[in-house]
């Protein structure tokens, strides 16, 4: 039963990666129509929190109050969520999308190294192998090596990509920690969204959002889509998966995003895949499958049952 739940949790992370891949395609066009990366990152959080709040108020008010022990992790999770959205959008606006994605998906390796340093115990060798395979595969699929050699890359864009990796790793670890302190996945998501929205309100007041841009139907549906399909759904899938797999394995599974993004570009935009990209896709898939072979969970990765 545990093995089945681990597989389902991994598939949930892959589904989340598919949503994020679609989100990148939708967001890129919104930037071209005048929505800045900061404002789109802010809007996606606000759009995502509204239906979640409505559901909790109507059906599960008991989940509105988090366990006291989980509050520090939840605040950190919300801050990391806000930061990763901003960093990723700034990165894909300033450097090639492939470079931005490759930088962000160094997160699994960061989590593995962090786990080793904090716990003084090395994760399973199979997990290290999976992390290495997916990292190399993500770089090949994204085309980052070719893009990096083509021209001088924007330094701010590169720093934003690194920040996206660090904060991506951080929100997975913090969401896992909140769950271990008894926070239900829906509670974790809701509090995280609220914290992220509050930070955005201080940084960029919501009332100054360029509402006039929403008069363009193409902008309006893209803002709605990045909030629901690109934010609420994938974050919900990823946080729920952390009940059964560690943050390291979740990060490895979401490394399928570059592969899925390349596939979407081929299907929707007619952009073909090069031989290195095909090899990279195979490596990512191989890394995700390798992660399933781990005979013992990473330190602190014992599945947590949370009362619903």
User: How much strand?
Assistant: under 5%
Determine the number of helices (DSSP H or I, runs of at least 4 residues): 13
Arithmetic mean of pLDDT: 79
Helical content, roughly? over 70%
Q: How many β-strand stretches? A: 0
Please describe the biggest sheet, giving its number of strands, its sense, and whether it closes into a barrel.
Answer: none
**Sequence of secondary-structure elements:** HHHHHHHHHHHHH
Structural class call reads mainly alpha
Count the domains: 1
Return residue spans where pLDDT drops below 50 for at least 5 consecutive residues.
Answer: 295-308
Distance between the termini: 19 Å
- The gyration radius over C-alpha positions equals 19 Å
Q: What's the shape?
A: globular
Output the keywords.
single chain; 308 residues; 0% strand
Secondary-structure map with pairings?
Elements: H1 2-32, H2 37-59, H3 71-94, H4 97-104, H5 107-119, H6 125-142, H7 144-150, H8 155-180, H9 185-203, H10 217-241, H11 247-254, H12 257-269, H13 275-291
Helix pairs in contact: 1-10, 1-11, 1-12, 2-3, 2-9, 2-10, 3-4, 3-8, 3-9, 4-6, 4-7, 4-8, 5-8, 5-11, 6-12, 6-13, 8-11, 9-10
């Amino acid at each position: 039963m545990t093995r089945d739940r681990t597989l389902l949790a991994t598939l949930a992370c892959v589904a989340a990666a598919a949503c994020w891949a679609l989100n990148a395609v939708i967001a890129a066009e919104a930037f071209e129509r005048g929505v800045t990366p900061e404002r789109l990152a802010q809007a996606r959080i606000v759009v995502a929190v509204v239906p979640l709040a409505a559901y909790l108020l109507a059906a599960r008010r008991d989940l509105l109050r988090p366990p006291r022990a989980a509050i520090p992790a939840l605040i950190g999770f919300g801050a990391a969520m806000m930061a990763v959205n901003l960093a990723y959008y700034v990165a894909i606006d300033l450097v090639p999308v492939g470079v931005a994605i490759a930088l962000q998906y160094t997160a699994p390796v960061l989590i593995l190294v962090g786990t080793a340093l904090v716990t003084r115990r090395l994760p399973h060798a199979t997990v290290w192998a999976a992390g290495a395979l997916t990292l190399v595969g993500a770089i090949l699929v994204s085309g980052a090596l070719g893009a990096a050699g083509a021209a001088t890359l924007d330094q701010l864009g590169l720093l934003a990509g690194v920040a996206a990796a660090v904060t991506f790793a951080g929100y997975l670890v913090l969401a896992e920690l909140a769950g271990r302190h008894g926070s239900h996945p829906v509670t974790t998501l809701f509090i995280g969204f609220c914290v992220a929205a509050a930070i955005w309100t201080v940084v960029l007041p919501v009332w100054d959002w360029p509402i006039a841009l929403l008069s363009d139907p193409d902008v309006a549906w893209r803002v709605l889509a990045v909030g629901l399909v690109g934010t609420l759904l994938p974050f919900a899938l990823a946080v729920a998966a952390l009940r059964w797999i560690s943050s390291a394995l979740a990060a490895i599974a979401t490394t399928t995003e570059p592969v899925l993004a390349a596939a979407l570009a081929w299907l929707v935009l007619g952009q073909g895949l090069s031989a290195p990209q095909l090899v990279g896709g195979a490596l990512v898939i191989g890394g995700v499958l390798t992660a399933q072979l781990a005979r013992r969970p990473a330190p602190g990765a014992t599945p947590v049952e949370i009362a619903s």
